[in-house]
Sequence to fold (179 residues):
Amino acid sequence: MRGAVVAGYDTRGGAPRWRYARAGHRPVVVLPARAEAITLWDDGLLTATDGRTVRWHRALPDAAEWLPDHGGAGVLRPLGHGILAVVTRRRVAAYRTADGDLRWTLPARDGCAFRPGGALRRGPALLLAQPCPDTAWTGQLVALDDLGRITPGRTPLGSAPPALRPGHRDAGNSLAPPR
Fold:
């Protein structure tokens, strides 16, 4: 990120490989992802680009209310397995990085707000602060991973290929049942 431009550089020699800019807008945060970049722009638009094409884009709700004061600290949080969490004060939205598909959302509890900059990574979990008045500190933390909020006995989304689903009969062949 340099000024109003997002750029990709060759890993060997450092030569510029591509540049991407949006007229009248500036990048707030850039998350490198292999040969591309996921960028949060000052107007709340989230883009994934390799410099030649924008593979996907998403608009963050109510970005004009919180982005100017907050900036991008802690907003983009990789969760693993190709899932990116976008943390705002009012909600967490998780997108698949390959195509920008919305996987899940988690709204903040009534009267509470997430603190994007107050997150901590612990193994595969992202611990996120959600300060609430008159609530014990244990109720002010939310644990997340690529499947959403971590709770006892939760059921996965079921969007993984069959071979990766727990309890699947034929973990070695996800295309056809055994004969």
In short: The CA atoms of residues 77 and 130 lie 16 Å apart. The chain has a mean pLDDT of 83. The longest strand covers residues 115-122.
